[in-house]
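hey so i finally got around to running the thing on that chain from the lab meeting. sorry it took forever, my laptop kept dying and i had to restart like 3 times. anyway pasting the input first so we r on the same page abt which one it is
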Amino acid sequence: MEITCVQMDVLISFYIEGELTSELSKKVEDHLRQCPTCRAKYNILSSLFSDMKKEFEEDYSDSENDYATTAYPSREYKSFKNNLSAYIDNELPYDENIKIKKYTIKNKKARKELEENYNIRKLMNDSFSKTKSGMRQDFSRNVMKKLDTENRYPGFNPLIKVGFAFIITVLIMSAIIIYALSM
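ok and heres what got predicted. didnt touch it at all, straight out
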């Protein structure tokens, strides 16, 4: 079975990253030898991946940080990144909390990332508080307007309305009964 160009569009990034089986990799290589269009796509994508890896290495290769010693983040960084939100919300167990604290103490970029997340959280809380207090003021203002309107145009008390409805119902039922008995 030969691989089509449409299938190559899906497989090419997996091939570049070395995530295909040896059998499927051979089929991809055969297709790349035969198809100039897919070979051009491969060349562009592989150079793009290579540039991204180099940039990642440059950004995270400081001797002070422990983000990565290679082009990929360390296990410790991945744990930090996965647990960051839970750490900020105080949802982690004690031992995980300690790991995050130790990692941020020894890692300058992790401290910066944690600080940025705290700043975002603070901005969101401030925004929510302003909106919430604004809603409370609007709600209070609306209630006051409604009370003021009711004082200007007083209506019947609801109990009086129910009483009148009951009396009218009794009168109508009495009239019907009297009429029925007179026949």
